[in-house]
Write a structure and sequence with these properties.
Blueprint (H helix, E strand, L loop, with lengths): L8 H17 L4 E3 L3 E4 L2 E13 L2 E11 L17 H5 L5 H15 L1
Antiparallel strand pairs: 1-2, 2-3, 3-4
Helix pairs in contact: 1-3
Length: 110
């Protein structure tokens, strides 16, 4: 929606990532402002949104999404603060399905 204020994109993107993750993995991930995705009190991932501007005009919006999908364990210092979908559900996921769903879902927001 071109009428959206681009400052709202990080939150909108994070909400869309949570929706997709929750639907695909049947979990209850949540957004922790401003850009973290939290599951069971631990960090599942994060969002980075950058704008490319020319003068006052936004020319592009770059979105980076990092998700812990199939990690079995995490090294210090994040051993106890990070989680993966596999840790939570015991299921190994096809990462390509998340890439496709996230690409379509985030594109829809722009």
């Amino acid at each position: 929606d071109s009428s959206l204020d681009t400052r709202s994109y990080p939150l909108l993107m994070a909400q869309e990532v949570c929706r997709i993750v929750n639907q695909a993995a049947h979990v209850q991930a949540e957004v922790e402002w401003p850009n973290d995705i939290i599951l069971s009190g631990k960090k599942l991932g994060g969002i980075l949104v950058e704008q490319v501007c020319q003068g006052d005009a936004v020319k592009a919006i770059l979105v980076g999404v990092g998700l812990n999908i199939n990690q079995d364990s995490f090294k210090p210092p994040i051993t106890h603060s990070a989680i993966s979908l596999k840790n939570e559900t015991g299921i190994t996921y096809e990462k390509e399905l998340f890439v496709e769903a996230l690409t379509l879902g985030l594109y829809r927001l722009l």
